[in-house]
Design goal:
The structure holds two protein chains of two kinds. Chain A is mostly beta strands. Helices cover 0% and strands 51% of the residues of chain A. Chain A is built from no helices and eleven strands. In chain A, strands 2, 4, 5, 6, 9, 10 and 11 form a seven-stranded mixed β-sheet that branches. Chain A has a four-stranded antiparallel β-sheet with strand order 1-3-8-7, with no helix packed on it. In chain A, a hairpin with a 5-residue loop joins β4 and β5. The model of chain A has no long low-confidence stretch (mean pLDDT 95). In chain B, β3 and β4 form a beta hairpin. Chain B is an all-beta fold. Chain B is built from no helices and nine strands. The chains are: A mainly beta, B mainly beta. Chains A and B meet through β5 and β10 of A and β3, β7 and β8 of B.
């Protein structure tokens, strides 16, 4: 069974750093890209970027380029989303999702990680 | 890259059919048959309902169907059921620099 299991909820202060994770199981982790999707409170889905775990090649949405870093450790089948300096506006639910083989659609999703940034 | 345009809300009675539109541009929806649709119930992760404009994943009811004309894609749900009440999002490939763009989402209410 394909599963993407994300790390737990985080509460951080502005300016702090953070890395959240997404562990894949039940499939060949290096054969599928992983995307990250943001959902701010009461708002819609926003595509942030994606990574190819086989070589760590990344694409970012222009809206998120330079604000977050997507990485992966294929040895432990885990993708990451990280911030070096959080802002209150980063408060959101973050989902990881697997892109199908051709990269056309998101076929499996993680359960989401809620990140709250507040002073 | 602007989000794709969806109606904020639609509603229908049980048994009826509804259609949700998703309007993009010639740079995304209009150029690629790579539109997908996702259903999201409150507090839950999104679920893939339609991919490549009109294909259904295994396990998704055939009451869900998709189509596209020009820069607008559509999701139709026939025989509405109470459990269809959810938010629906379209998503399109938007070229190698942006890669993906979502619609703003549509809240479906089953009356």
């Amino acid at each position: 069974e394909v599963q993407l299991v994300q790390s737990g909820a985080e509460v951080k202060k502005p300016g702090e750093s953070l890395r959240i994770s997404c562990k894949g199981s039940g499939y060949s982790f290096t054969s599928y890209w992983i995307s990250w999707v943001r959902q701010m409170p009461g708002k819609g889905l926003e595509w942030m970027g994606r990574i190819d775990p086989s070589d760590s090649y990344t694409n970012y949405s222009p809206s998120f380029q330079g604000h977050v870093t997507i990485s992966a450790d294929k040895s432990i089948s885990t993708a990451y989303l990280q911030w070096s300096s959080l802002k209150a506006s980063d408060t959101a639910m973050y989902y990881c999702a697997r892109l199908n083989i051709g990269g056309e659609f998101l076929d499996y999703w993680g359960q989401g990680t809620l990140v709250t940034v507040s002073s | 890259q602007s989000a794709l345009t969806q109606p904020a809300s639609v509603s229908g009675s049980p048994g009826q059919s509804i259609t949700i539109s998703c309007t993009g541009t010639s740079s995304d929806v209009g150029s690629y048959n790579l539109v997908s649709w996702y259903q999201q119930h409150p507090g839950k992760a999104p679920k893939l309902m339609i991919y490549e404009v009109s294909k259904r994943p295994s396990g998704v009811s055939n009451r869900f169907s998709g189509s596209k004309s020009g820069n607008t894609a559509s999701l139709t749900i026939s025989g509405l059921q109470a459990e269809d009440e959810a938010d629906y999002y379209c998503c399109s490939y938007a070229g190698s620099s942006t890669f993906r763009v979502f619609g703003g989402g549509t809240k479906l209410t089953v009356l």
